[in-house]
Structure prediction request, 1002 residues.
Amino acid sequence: MSTKKQDERVEMLQGTLDLLILRTLQLGRLHGYAIAKAIQFKSDDVLSVEEGSLYPALHRLIKRGWISFESGTSENNRQAKFYRLTAQGRRQLTRETSKWDKFAKAIARVLRPVE
Amino acid sequence: MNRRKRMLEGLDEDIREHIAERTQENIDRGMSPEEARFAALRKFGNLTRVKEDTREIWSFVWLEELFQDIRYALRTLAKNPGFTAIAVLSLTLGIGGTTTIFTLVKGVFLQSIPVKDPSTAVVVYSTQQTVDGEVTEYLQNAFLNAKDYRENNDAFAGLAMFMDAGDELEISGSAAPIFADVQLVNWDFFNILGVRPVLGRNFAKDEDETPDARPVVILSYALWNTKFAGDARIVGQNIRLNGEDYNVIGVMPKEFQQVGAIGSPDLWAPMMMHDQLVTDPRKDRFLSRRGRLVFMVGRLKPGVSFSAANTSMRALSDHLAEEYPAENSGRNVVMVPLSETNVPPVQRSLFLLVSTLMMGIVILVLLIACGNVANLLLAREMQRRRELAIRLSLGASRWRLIRQLLTEGLLLGFVAAALGIGCATGAIHFLWKLLPGGKPQGLNFSLDGRVVLFTLGLSVVATLIFGLVPSLQVSNPRQMGALRDRSDLPGGGGRWYGLRGFLVMAQIAFSLIALVGSALFIHSLRNAEQLDPGFETKHELLVFLDPSRQNYPQERTEQYYRDAAERVRALPAVADAGIANSAPFDESVTASYTTFPEGVDTSDLRNASQFPVVAVGPGYFSAAGIPLLRGRDVNDFDAPGMDQVVVINQALADRLWQGQDPIGKRLTCLAGRTLQAEVIGVVGNVKVRTLEELPQPILYFSLKQMYFPNAVLYVRTKGDANSALSSVRSAVQSLDPAIPLDRPVTVSSLMDQMVSGSRLAAELLMGFGALALLLAAVGTYGVMSYSVSQRTQEIGIRMAMGAQRGDVLRLILRNGMTMVLAGVVAGLGASVFFTRSINSLLYGIGSFDVASFFAAAAVLIAAALFACWIPARRAMRVDPVVALRYE
Prediction:
């Protein structure tokens, strides 16, 4: 079992997941489970990640200061933490989104030349 | 931190909630409650992993891992007490020994001098070249010459003279009389050194201008504290020194003692008071340029380098030699930084050599110890291959594993270092007490951080290097073969023991070098102890007579000497008694005179030689056991006013009148005044300064013609010298009970003292050699033992194929001893190379002394053989059935 390649894959996935979370929170505050569902829903179940990996991602984003949290109650009257974007997080999202767009466009041009 | 706490607090709950919600959704979709929960959990993933990963985000990962590593290392070390004990002990001894020796050496050589800017303070000595080309260094300068240097140099911001007044002078007054050492200095002496008094003031310029004009003194702290009760009111008062009143103007600070060549005088007086304060014969030649009286200490001008100052001063010397050819020809100067005069410059190179030798050997011991630790670590890591392989396959990072192995090594190192330093502290004090007398007081032996750091660094680096290599090897994930329980791994079988074998060879080589060093020293010491010093040693006593303490005038003193000798001669236990002015090997009293043989031009100093001088009474030679070879002894008819008579020894006769009869020849000596002397006898050679010296020429004058206020009574006893001590003492004491009498000493105890320094060095070296041997033997045993356990299978096969027990024994022994002998050969080669540099320390043997090399090698091979024997016997006892079963 080579650990190096696995580390790389994990890192890539981490970055993508972080981005997805930020995007999901762009529209408002959500609690943990809701975020998981939103990602799953939005991506048509394509990007199915282990749900558990959501939590380290959330903590990572908090540590970096891109999202913040507060305690509250969900629709089902359950205690939960609610997460939302910070201004910094918003800026990061814009940056990353434009990077992805460029990336996607480049891939598209390669895959479907002369459109 | 707050965030962290809040986040982590709710984590379990958050996750529970998440799963609960998913479960509910599944139920809503139609699953049964158990199925729903199951599905939710599966979708969530590894709960533990998620929690760990999340927590990791917030932790100082490296710190927690470090603590984990340390705890694990401690557990592992505790589980193998044998291994840990040997490793820690080896390292402790190595680190302790190195720290001890290094600190001692540093304390002696690098003692800080309590002056300002010690690096620019320089002591200036005079040198004399004689007609045969020999140059004697580190002599005093003549007063007038020194004055010229002081006034005409351009290299020093200030250059001051200092000289010891000579005899101890009495400070009388209310309390009991005290005898003090006085040092005469120029007025700017303390200013040049940058030292300010702690009370009062320094000398002023006008106090050093006119002879005898201003009787002032500055007290040392020690004298002030002990004899003047530390009373600050002493400043401004008078004390009575040598019969005259002196005004105390200041007290020097406590740290101003042991100042290199300056020493620790009790008080200082201006140079211009020399007439009153110098009471020995030097008094009369104070203003003669031929005499030798003062040393100088100077402060280099800013920007002037040591070598530039040297050149400039030597140019001045040449100029002085031109201007005063009669007195100064062949004279020059030599400069030594003040900080290097802790050890008298004459002995400095000897001390340096011995220190280097000690340090070298002790580093060898340390390296051997590190080798042991490394070997042990290596062995264990081999044994843990399985465990490590499993951990690797479970996903542990290789780097983490290596770090863990290294932590163990470091932990060992630190524990050993702490213990070693503890031992060193004790050892340092113990060793210092053991050193022979005459050692300076107040040396700083506190542990220097640099020394500790160096030894620690050395051991850590050595251990790490050898711990790292196998760590890298072992943690290589491609070595999956370790999971299969095979013992034919590299480094385990066969004749070549790999890295571990190489380490052991190095250890053997190092310990051989250490042993050879010890053997050489011991051999040299035995030679020195058997030397004949030229006088009687076994049945000889010395009594120190000091009638000047009671202020006896000259005639009464001489009578005292005669009476003492007579009274002692009358004792039944005594065979003979005689007087001389100095005891053997007494450095401080050995005067020497500039001597011209008859028929040479006495105005040119280069025609003269410096010969040690002893003044003796009649019967001295027979009492001391020195044979009279030709002519006659001095007798009572050689009185003052008549021609000076002199007895010379064989070495002097050979030096000046080789092949001729020296009786009747004449000499001219400069001894304050100029003496003309006639040779009346020749006696055998004796050792003057050291046991190993070549025969020294000596002049023996008659005490009656050359007065000395104190003397030594030599007593030859009929039986055991020790038993006569008290009767001799009471006989002399009865002459005048008021004269304090030091306890008589036997000459054999004096001789013991002479070699005690070398003896201590030899014992130390022997101790370190033994230590090196022990550690190397332990290392050898370790490797052999491990190898045998690894080769159990092979041995079983051999035995099953018909090998006898004896064959197995021989096989193992042969393998082991090949390794050992390789090390011995390497060690011998290295020894030949290294011991050349200590040739000058050895007496009677060259550095390639076959006996020593042979002895060292023999001892080492014997020990190593024993170390190989034990595991070999174990191999012999292997039961082939059991061995083969372990496939």
Summary: The two ends of chain B are 56 Å apart (CA to CA). Residues 533 and 687 of chain B are 5 Å apart (CA to CA).
